[in-house]
Amino acid sequence: MCIKRWSTDASKLLAGELVFSSVEIKKMKYIHHFLRPVTINGIVIILKRQANDQLPGGKHWGVNIYCDRGRLQKRPCTNTISVRDFSSLDMVMRTKPSALTSTYECIVMWTQNKTSKWLSTLAEDENMSALKDARKNAPVIQNRI
To answer: Which top-rank group of organisms is this from (predicted)?
Structure first.
C-alpha cells in the first residue's frame, strides 16, 4: 500500500504519486508543508485502528458472506431503529429546548425501551425494588454526566 511506503519516505508522494490511479489531484504550491512523513505515519496509525477488524487477524478477516448467510439474514437490513431514536430525540429537543442532555436521554430511552410496560410486568415487590435502586443510583449517574 502506498500510504505505508509514504510513511517512511514521502518523496514520491510529493512528486505526485497517486493512491488510486483513477483519481486526479491538483498540484498545490505548498503541498510539502501539509504532507510530511510524520503526518502520513499518523494516517497509517488511524487507518489501522479503524480497519483493525478487517485486517489480517481481525474478527472479520476472511469472513465468507456466502457461508454466513444464515447468520447475516437475522440482522436488520435498515436503520429504522436509529432513525426512530433520533426522530424521538429531535421531537423532545424541540418541545423541551432548555432540558439537560440527561433528561433527553432519559425520555428517549424510557419511551423506546418501553420501561413502563416492563415495570408493569414485574411483581409488586420487584417493581418497588427496581424503582428504589433507580432513585438511589440516579445522583451517581447524574454526576457522571
So the answer is: Eukaryota
Which three three-digit cell numbers place residue 26? 491538483
Same domain, 51 and 11: yes
**Grid cell of 97 as nine digits:** 429546548
Domain that holds residue 93: 80-144
Task: Quote the percentage of the chain above a pLDDT of 90.
Answer: 12
What is the pTM for the complete model shown?
0.43
Domain stops at, among 44, 73, 102: 73
Cell 409488586, residue located? 124
Q: Of 40, 73, 106, which closes a domain?
A: 73
- In 3D space, the residue among 126, 131, 82, 132 whose CA is nearest the CA of residue 108 turns out to be 82
101-112 and 80-95 helices, crossing angle to 10°: 130
Count how many domains the chain has: 2
- Examine the pLDDT at 138 and tell me if it is beyond 90: no
Cell triple for residue 9?
Answer: 519516505
CB 17 within 8 A of CB 2: yes
For residue 23, the tally of other CB atoms under 10 A from its CB is: 7
Predicted local distance difference test score (pLDDT) of residue 76: 67
